[in-house]
Amino acid sequence: MNAENFATFARFFVAEGHNINASNGEGKTFLQVISSHRHAGEYIDALKAAGAN
Questions:
Q1: What are the two backbone dihedrals, phi and then psi, of residue 2, each rounded to the nearest 5 degrees?
Q2: Taking a C-beta distance cutoff of 8 angstroms, is the pair 12, 50 a contact?
Q3: Which of 2, 11, 17, 25 counts the highest number of beta carbons within 10 A?
Q4: Which residue range is the domain that position 38 belongs to?
Q5: Domain count, the chain
Q6: Rg for the chain (alpha carbons), in Å?
């Protein structure tokens, strides 16, 4: 998924009442999981714009 489509998805995800900061079994959020990926910059920005922290 390209970054623009991901940003749209993230906004819809939050608008529908889903938790953008939900954690996985290891206690990490999606933002934390992707933050170490070298090509994640635009996706990180999209998550933060949707309210991720």
A1: -75, 165
A2: no
A3: 11
A4: 3-49
A5: 1
A6: 11
- Burial (Cβ within 10 Å: 0-12, 13-18, ≥19) of residue 4: exposed
Among 4, 15, 23, smallest CA distance to 31 is for: 23
CB 13 within 8 A of CB 6: no
Structure tokens at 14: 């939050």
Query: What are the tens digits of pLDDT across the range 6-44?
Result: 999 999 999 999 999 999 999 999 999 999 999 999 999
d(C-alpha 41, C-alpha 53), whole Å: 14
Decide: pTM greater than 0.85. Answer: yes
Q: What are the φ and ψ backbone dihedral angles of 32, each rounded to 5 degrees?
A: -65, -40
DSSP class of residue 18 equals -
